[in-house]
Amino acid sequence: MRDHIPVVVQGRGRRARRAGLVGVLWATAELTVTVGVVVLLLVVHQVWWTNRQAAAAAQEQVRSLEQSWALERAGSPERAGSPERAPGDDPPASGGPASSPGPSASSASSAPSAPAPVPSGRAAGPSGAYAVLRIPRLGLVVPVAQGIDRRAVLDKGYVGQYPGTAGPGAQGNFALAGHRNTHGEPFRYINRLRAGDELIVDMRGRRYTYVVGKILSETTERDTGVIAPVPRSLVKPEQGYGEPGAYITLTTCTPEYSSKYRLVVWGTLRP
Q1: Distances (CA, A) of 143 to 14, 24, 172, 176, 193
Q2: CB-based burial, 214-226: b 16+ in 10 Å, e otherwise
Q3: pLDDT single digits (tens) 97-108
């Protein structure tokens, strides 16, 4: 009787190891693709969808403001033609932004012939917006609200007025902030503005036209001088103004998709 000799197939173990490796690689590839799709969806939501939502809501707010002003004029033309000041609307005695650290700049105490009051909450719409900023060169029409809180103002696609700065048309500095990217990105293209361009502010039947005078392409986020009553950079003192007047300031982040620095556009009220 012959002994039974088992036959050993040497390649079977290799094939099993190879199949296991292929399975691991396949699972890793699937996981990588899944993560990539999730990240892509998050980017699309942040960059595209939030823009559409915020921009649409901002335009609806512009229409709401304009309709309320039209009704106000139709129902009470005398009241609509005169400015209204509410208690607590006066700017701080220092003349600088209420929430900004650093030295305050001095400004003239005399008021222009027809100043606009710093708006109160009861004069604003339900969302807090009280004025409309128009920039013809950029085709921009956007509501203006008080404050620069991200959730309450900027993420809605609005531009926000720095606390304590002058109202539209008033002596001092009407200083505004807005997103450059995402959430409606109203100030995305303000780097394209040039000297002589118009910045128009409408508020309750009144229109104030500012003219772009100077642009500071880059400064630090702590450069509070750019929103002082007489705006002048504390980081680059050669940039800014030296005389009291009625100014407007637009500020946003730079470079794009970064908040490292600030881009600043200044204008003066057209007589």
Answers
A1: 69, 54, 21, 11, 19
A2: bbbeebeeebbbb
A3: 333 333 333 233
CB atoms within 10 A of CB 205: 15
Residue 63 located in a structural domain: yes
Q: Give bridge partners of residue 139 from the DSSP assignment.
A: none
Q: Which of 64-78, 81-95, 130-144 has the highest mean pLDDT?
A: 130-144
Judge whether 34 lies within some domain: no
In this structure, what CATH number is given to the domain that contains residue 79? 2.40.260.10
Q: How many Cα atoms occupy the beta-carbon half-sphere of 49 within 13 Å? A: 7
As annotated, the active-site residues are: 179, 253, 262
Q: Provide mean pLDDT across the span 191-220.
A: 97
| 171-189 pLDDT tens trace | 999 999 999 999 999 999 9
In a domain, 2, yes or no: no
**Total domains in the fold of the chain:** 1
> How, if at all, do strands 129-135 and 261-269 pair?
unpaired
The whole-number average pLDDT for the span 243-266 is 96
Q: Residue 149 domain-assigned? A: yes
Q: Of 206, 205, 210, 251, whose CA–CA distance to 228 is shortest? A: 251
Q: Can you give the residue range of the structural domain that contains 59?
A: 47-269
Tokens of 40: 């892509």
CA-to-CA separations, 205 to 2, 78, 122, 240, in angstroms, rounded: 112, 11, 16, 31
Q: Cα(28)–Cα(22) distance, rounded to whole angstroms? A: 10
In this predicted structure, the answer to whether residue 205 has a pLDDT above a threshold of 80 is yes
As a whole number, the mean pLDDT across the chain is 80
Within the chain, strands assigned E span 129-135, 140-146, 159-161, 172-177, 198-203, 206-219, 246-254, 261-269
